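B., you asked whether I could sanity-check this one before it goes into the benchmark set. Here's the sequence:
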Amino acid sequence: MPKHDKTKIISMVTLMERDREKVHARMDGDMDYFNLVPYKGESDENGIPLMDDFKKVTSNDPRNYGRLSIHLISNAKRILKVPQQNDQKDVRTLKNMKELFALGVLSAADERRQKLLMPTIQGSLASQTALRGRRAQRVLLVKEEIDPTPEQEAERKQFEELGLGALLEDVPTTRTFVDVTDWDPRNTYWGMGRHGLVWACHKQSKSIDEIQEEYPDVDFFEDNYGQEKVYDVYDYLDEEDNLVFIDNIPDLKSRTPHGMGQVPAAIGMVGDLPVMQASGENYEEFYGESIYSSDREMFDQNNFILSYEAEACRRALNPGAFYRSRDGSKTIEGRPFTSDALTPLADGEVLEQFPQQEMIQTGALLHNEIKGMMQRGGYDYTSFGQLGQTLSGFAITQLRQGQELLTGPALESSRQGIEDIANIIADGYATGNFDTMTLSGRLQDVQRTYFSEEITPDIVSEGGKIEIRLTSSMPQDDASKAALVGLLRQGEVPVVDDRFLREHILEYQDPDQIERAIMEQAGKRGSPIALAYSAALAMEEQGDQEMAKIWEAEFQILMLQKLAELRQTQQGVGQGPPTPGGGPPIPGGGNAPPGQLSPANLPGAVQGLPPPPPTPQQGPIAAPGTPRPNRATRRDSRL
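And here's what the prediction gave me:
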């Protein structure tokens, strides 16, 4: 694919902006609903306002719908998996490591976003899919240079002065971090090839101050720093390079290889509507719809009726009146129809109140119909906890299905977005163009176990595809899963194996690790010796020395019993005739019951006896070289 220059990029973006005018108008209107922009009233067919003198009311339903949708999506339970079928143990280990890699990079990205005052990836996707109906993120692994610390520099100079520079370990001069940046889908443009994205560009308006802070090495704005002028910044990506620029101004970031191996942008739509065409019709405005798609007109009609009712209430507080005097020149001061008001009138003068404004009967019916349509296109009152009566389990299930009808498309698009981000990072890391990263985070188990692992690119390249699942988890879901596991394990021949239950039903992160932990627990509890040893260590760590000594003594006793049983097995009947009591012969007297050891066989230290005295020195102590006493000399032997 040919590389586009700045002029070509600006031309393509400008053309797409013109084609998407209706899409932009729809997105801007949705954001006005969410931000509760005040209702301006109705107009007639000629555009003349009809409610200039009316009190206007803006319902908060659009805001509540948006907040609930974002909450349900951003707090959905996220399950990350690399599929494992009938793989061998070493292959499963590789896939488990890739799962840790995906969890680690997503956690690292969220930590960096938090420092930049940005929401989490899942929270940002929830907002984009719910309010914009589309999503867009720039996904990069950034390799930047780092300077050595003063301690490392001093150590290097010291070794070089001693002529030992070759012994110094290589100090890393670069580091790699995860950069997942949100792009506003309204201002994101892209081009598609035969197999997917071939380029993507985000256009954003920034002030000179913002540009200078983000790109401090660019000195073009030094003379204009502090001015309020706004520039359009283009952030362009293709399959090889990244380019950031402003029209007719030197590049903020020159064309630089990003090393990701593909267009590092995760872009997607909400909904299942495929591309459709008609003569003279442009349906693009209907692709990637927000949660307001069914209720936009209903919001305006609801505000109209609420405004009419509010105006009627206002006029009831300050009703209009007419005063008829003899010559028509007399006026009334103050408000004559308030409580305790007295208005003197002369003969022939009349003060009358205008009739109260009443809402027609069909108006109330119309309002109820509009509220019903709003609930069918959005959320009903029960979704916000407004229950008129106690609901059955079946009713709650039906209401939950109604919620999923509205949030389901946005939830699915958010799920796909997280999956795209994780796989783009994994594919880029597997190219080997970046530093080996040590990643940390929390597992998906109940305890949220912490992990920290150094994961190399070759492991990621062989691990398989990362899959993400988002589900709105309720407390009863965990209980139902546990009941299903018990049901599937019943009988002599279970329906499925334990690994399948842990991975697909309980959705544990690493079934092999869970199995090892279960075997370890069974090993500790299955052997009295292992139990005594573990208890002694636990008491020691807790600082309970008395109980630690008791369990240590218990451990020693059990070990001696096992040793005695082993000796009996080895010696067999060669030990002599059995004693009348049935137990083995015991030195020093006494019989032990079968399978047990008499206390007389225990060492003195275990029985509490003092240690034996040391053997005394035999003969006098002589200096080295002194002959032994009574040693015959050579002369004596000759005699």
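One thing to flag: Residues 579-583, 585-590, 634-639 have pLDDT under 50 and may be disordered. Otherwise nothing jumped out at me.
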